[in-house]
Design brief:
Layout: E1 2-9, H1 15-21, E2 29-34, H2 37-50, E3 54-62, H3 71-83, E4 90-97, E5 104-113, H4 127-142, H5 152-161, H6 165-177, H7 188-198, H8 203-216, H9 221-230, E6 234-237, E7 244-247, E8 253-255, H10 256-260, H11 264-272, H12 287-292, H13 299-316, H14 327-330, H15 335-342, H16 346-366, H17 377-404, H18 406-424, H19 427-435
Antiparallel strand pairs: 1-3, 2-4, 3-5, 4-5, 6-7, 7-8
Helix pairs in contact: 3-4, 4-5, 5-6, 6-18, 8-9, 13-18, 15-17
Amino acid sequence: MIIKATRIRTGSGHGKLLRHLLRTDENEQVSILHGTEHDLIEAVKDAHARHNTHALRHVIFSPDEPLEEGQLAWLQKMFREEFKADGPLFVVRHDKIRAGGKVVAEHYHFIYAEALGNGLVLDSRFSKRRHEKIARLAEMKFGHTLTLGKGTQAVIHALEANGQARQAAILRAAIYADDRTPEAAFTHAQHQATKRRSGQPVLPAMRADILNLWNAHHRILWDFISAANDVGLRVFGGDKEDVYLIEDTAGNRLALHRVLGLKKRELAYFMEHADQPAPKTSKRLRAQDVRQGGPILSPDLLRTVQDRLEDLAAIIRPQWTRAECRTEIISRPWRAEIRQLERMSPEEELSRHLEALIARMLNALFGWNLTVPVTSAQEARELVHNYARQCAEKRQSDVQQHFRSSFVRAALEERRKLREALSSREADVVSGLETGHFDTSLSPHQDTDPSPADPNPIVSTRRTRSGPER
């Protein structure tokens, strides 16, 4: 289940939202379950009178399976309790054929007033994580498949804080049983952009066609690429390492590993072994599958193991992220100074040339160690680029050395064993975890020097004194 929300600004009014809700060209059936347009108009007027920035909250409930009687009311009740909302102003059900033309799926649109009857406004703090919490609770209660993503760990912590330890334990066990984090083939923004450009939904249909082609050729990459070329699809390498894109004749692109449900390193492997069939994506779990899979660890033991996994993550995590090891990222702080040099007047340019000349003369005549200011934007760009490149190489070397170290390799091995033990769900393994001892000799990595050279490769563009201080 997916729950997402959009806040409608007061100045935008209700008209565009209402037209979207009542569109019949993209939905097989549109059913108004509650409310009228007059309710939306009054909510916008109320927001104008209170001078509120937002007037309406548009919430979408999109279940993976059809809802049974009473389940929609339960979802509405959970949302109202979580966000302290008043009753919905407008409720619409859409029935839409999903990409591929085989399944008719339902989803629901709830419109709430941002201005509450008690004079306050509708809560919006950490809304995405709270939406995920409601969705996971609904999946467990309704028996739907569990949607596990990057925010699941935050949901687990929230459930434990609220005293819902049993639900948190089910989610933890599901994560360890299936550690493959699902990734969307395209973002909502990409979907809307191509939809506006083409006048119809393009990316969902493209994804469905690619998956049908992939399964029709038994998940063998070589056969799939040949068939894709025959139908006008082109597979090529992206700008990032181990990322391959697939493009149609209209120029629409998708990341191939996301469409096929593979990890980047898995796709890179099959690119080199293109005649081997890729394994099928594991079936998504339900809460009852997790319960039947074996004993679930007690909350205390789960918390202990999770704390240890977080400690191991701190050991394994390098000091620098991938972005911080890129030359263009390191050079960003000096962009403003370079722009100031580009906008120098002739008088300022002459003054900097004189300062540089005086500094060089004093260094040569008296041996003073004075910094020579740069005299042009081009010279500054070259200095910054050289510094950023040296710094990037130093950081990349630090990261490589970090992962070659013995304590990081030991932490990786311990994390692998812990995950295997948690996913096995066997009674003897669980008892072994309860009596096991963690390797406390491992310690986090030591920070290294981030700067291989002078941390300020160019002198500030502000006017400086050319001579030594008295």
